Every structure is written in structure tokens, then in C-alpha cells.
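Quick start: read one record
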Amino acid sequence: MGVATTRQSKRRSSSRLPDPLLSRLGEQIRNLRAARGMSRKALAHDAGVSERFLADLETGIGNASILLLNKIADALALPLADIITSNRQPNADLTLSLQLLSKLSAEDLEDARKLLQGRFSAPITQAQRLTRIALVGLRGAGKSTLGQLLAEQLHYRFIELDQKIEELSGMDTAQIHVMLDQSTYRRCELEALQALVSDPAPGLVIATPGSIVSEAETFTYLLSSCFTIWVRASPEEHMARVISQGDMRPMAGNREAMNDLRRILVNREPLYAKADATVDTSNKSVEAAFAVLRQTIPLSAQD
């Protein structure tokens, strides 16, 4: 009987072992509470949770819902992201900078980003940027077609960034996605872009993957090192052009394909809009779209 009781006790004890992720979350909450000078009792009261629940949460054996974590964040007067972020040693300058930036208007925030980008990115002059023209936008917008025409007229080289990724990795991009993972592809994407930018040969037009804006480090590097143009179109034209090229993957087994495309475009539009110029190819022939594109290129790039 005594042995059975001991075994049950061990099972109960092992079931209460803290999960590493929950332990880090609990430590994060303890640190934030300490920085605020709040007792556990005070935080529990302000968040509307029991002190016992908060104690379990802080020791890594309690698993809170997002709604409860949001209550704790409100009680600490912090954004939820500060609660669930990885537990790293807080950096005072980063904290103060983020607080300052959070109070800026959208226009001032864009100015601040450009100042930081110009101050801390690799020293690249505007003249150097104009020797590298990058086209961004969703698949089917016309980046490759227009990019090739632009390169011919400017006597620049044209390259698809995916081609450079495949050249450096020795694998096609589909294999990277299937056999490796998203983070590996993103690393290869940045390395490929850096290789193109560091090439001393002048004159380059790059057609980038539509998702390049999703990786902040890569997109920031692109904006600082290349003259970027957002080639855009309506969702319907994006889809129609991709299918007309013989690629039925967007529609294969996906009744929500068009809704998904609209959602992707809505979420990426604020990022695409950071480009130096925009060319809308909707309801335009290739010739008409190219004429608009040529007008966006500064004269110094055409010399």
C-alpha cells in the first residue's frame, strides 16, 4: 500500500514538472512584475486572477490562456507582446527607444525608420542604389516581364533572386521549402541578395519573390541598397496571370484561393508601399505598363 501511494505521488509530482516554455514565460512575468515594483498579491488583484494561479504561472506549472495573459499585461500596463516575448535580458536603450517610437505618428515613424536605416545600414549612396533596381510585388504582377524590358533598355543585367538562391544553395527553391524549412530559405534569400549587391559590376535589375517583404532584415537591406519599385495589380489580375502561365497551384484543392490572395495582398500592402515608387499594371498592356515604369526611374539611373 505504501509503495502504491509513493508511485501515485511520483506520478502527480512528475505531472507538475514545469515545461521549459512555461518556465520562461513565468520568469518573464516575475521580472516584469519586479521592474514594476508590484507584489504578486497586487498583480493578481489588478489582473483579476487568484494569487495561487499567478504563483503557478510564475513557477512554470500554470498554463494561461491568451485572454488571461492579456489581463496580466493590462495590469502591468504593458503590451501583450512584452509578456510572451522570449525571456532575454532587458535592454534599457531598446525599451526606451520602443517607447519613444510607439508615440510617433505613422508619418513620423516612417521618417524615424529612414533615419535609422540611413545611419546604421551599410553606407550606400543614392547613386549606388540607382545602379540596382529591385522590383517587389506579388506573383503575377509582371515583375519578370517588365524587369527584363527595363534591363534591356538601361543595358543592365536582369536576374530573378530565386535564381541566385538556387545558384548559391545548389537546390531549387521548391526543394529548400520541402526538404529544409522556412528559416533556411529566408537565410538563403538574404545571402543571395547580399551577394548581388556586393557584386562590383554596375547595372542590375532584380525581380524579387513576393514574400521578401515578410522578412524584416532582408527587406530593410533591400530598401537601403536598391531603388525599389512595387509592381502591383488587382487580385483578379494576379490570379489570372499566374493561371495563364500554366500554374494551377493557387487553385488546386483550394476553394478559398482568391480570398487567401486578397488577404495576403492586404497584409503586405503597407510593406510593399515602402518602395521608392509604385507601378500599377492593372488593365494595362505590357507596353503601357512599361511606359509607366520607365517614368519612375530617376534620370541619373538612365545615364
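The domain at 113-301 is CATH 3.40.50.300 (Rossmann fold).
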